[in-house]
Design a protein that fits this description.
The chain has about 400 residues and is α/β, with parallel strands linked by helices. It contains 13 helices and 19 strands. Strand 16, helix 12 and strand 17 form a beta-alpha-beta unit. The longest helix is centred in the last third of the chain and has 19 residues, at about 380-395. It is elongated. It starts with 6 loop residues before the first strand and ends with a helix.
């Protein structure tokens, strides 16, 4: 469970998105967090406190003068043992209160008197979000160190569409998990490749592989959690892009090659996770090959694809380059040989049978200090350990 032992105060303000806060409480508890809900008076007009009490297992607070707190100082006591105060949804009115230090109810007073980090997930009509006053308030809050989660863009309860939707509960949980991760790569820019490539033979056939992209996407998420600005060049996969990550979709090896070279100049780290096809058809056909009455299968001439990782590593001032080696046998021999031939400081190796397309894996890291086996774990857990190693290597480069 990603939030085991964490104590979260969840503030709920007035707005139709308050109904999503109920699901947020459920997901937070499923990840092991203890959740104390504090509601504004307006929020109680959308969802009752009984709902949140049932889901959180704790009494809900909304009254600044609540006699259940022995000192009658709920705004002080509720945040003292909390790891974070999360307000979702955060209305335009509440953001304005925060920006100007107003404290006229329990939740706004709690936010002003807290001694823990504050995260807010805005939710409002698109005109309210785009209003200059709201934009000024958000800029002020960011300057004060408040973490702004979202908002998303899409259909709204008013019937319009645009920015202002609260992030979905699962997205907010992912952002909260990221908040608690060590910021090993703060201020760094990470470029990754992930997934397979597809090399067209004709309009419907091609050369590809079974890479799911899960390891690359896990590393993108872990790098972003660690504070990096992440660009993910992704082959064709059916995975959702991690929150806060910029995805550049590509199909073929040549498209991936071009995308990497467009972005690599700005990168501090390049992680080549994609299973790039070694070869592509020399002359892709524009029309579908017909089986017809041919006695023999057609011959397809292949040409070598560029070695993206080797090219990046050979740049005059390359980023810290990390490779991947998925092998079916003799992993240590082949991975170390690949690392030395490409002249890169770190390579992560795994046997295909240990998790090439699954949710878990087993990795061995190879660098100048030798081999570093990582115990079998989920790909996200392994990705976080890899990011930690990358952070150590970056420190040494300084």
């Amino acid at each position: 469970m990603e939030l085991a032992g964490k104590r979260i105060v969840l503030g709920v303000t007035g707005g139709i998105a308050a109904y999503k806060a109920a699901e947020l409480v459920r997901l937070l508890r499923a990840e092991g967090a203890s959740v104390q809900v504090v509601m504004s008076d307006a929020a109680t007009h959308f969802v009752t406190p009984v709902t949140f009490q049932a889901l959180s297992g704790k009494p809900v607070f909304s009254d600044q003068w609540d006699p259940r707190v022995a000192s009658n100082m709920a705004h002080i006591d509720l945040s003292r043992e909390a790891h974070t105060l999360l307000v979702a949804p955060a209305s335009a009115d509440f953001l304005a209160k925060l920006a100007h230090g107003l404290a006229d109810d329990l939740l706004s007073t709690l936010a002003l008197a807290r001694d823990c980090p504050l995260l807010v997930a805005p939710a409002m009509n698109r005109q309210m979000w785009e209003n200059p006053a709201t934009r000024r308030n958000v800029a002020t809050l960011r300057g004060d160190g408040v973490v702004i989660l979202g908002p998303a863009s899409g259909d709204q309860a008013c019937g319009e569409s645009g920015p202002g939707r609260m992030l979905e509960p699962a997205e907010i949980v992912a952002e909260l998990v990221a908040h608690f991760q060590p910021k090993r790569l703060a201020g760094r820019r990470v470029l990754l490749t992930a997934g397979p490539t597809f090399e067209a033979i004709d309009p419907v056939r091609g050369i590809t592989n079974l890479s799911s992209g899960r390891m690359g996407y896990a590393i993108a998420r872990a790098a972003r959690e660690a504070g990096a600005e992440v660009t993910l060049v992704s082959g064709p996969v059916s995975l959702a892009c991690p929150p806060g990550v910029t995805r550049v979709p590509v199909t073929s090896a040549l498209e991936m090659h071009a995308a990497v070279h467009r972005h690599v100049r700005d990168a501090d780290v390049f992680v080549a996770v994609a299973a790039v096809a070694d070869y592509r058809p020399a002359r892709p056909l524009t029309e579908k090959i017909k089986k017809g009455g041919q006695a023999q299968a057609p011959t397809i001439d292949l040409v070598l694809n560029p070695d993206i990782l080797a090219e990046v590593a050979a740049l005059p001032d390359p980023p810290l380059c990390v490779g991947f080696a998925a092998e079916s046998e003799r992993l240590a021999e082949y991975a170390e040989s690949k690392r030395r031939s490409k002249k890169i400081p770190l390579i992560a190796g795994n046997l295909i049978q240990d998790g090439f397309a699954g949710d878990s894996n087993r990795l061995i890291l190879f660098d100048d200090e030798g081999q570093h086996p990582l115990p079998p774990a989920s790909k996200l857990q392994l990705a976080r350990q890899l990011v930690e190693r990358i952070g150590q290597l970056l420190e040494r480069r300084r």
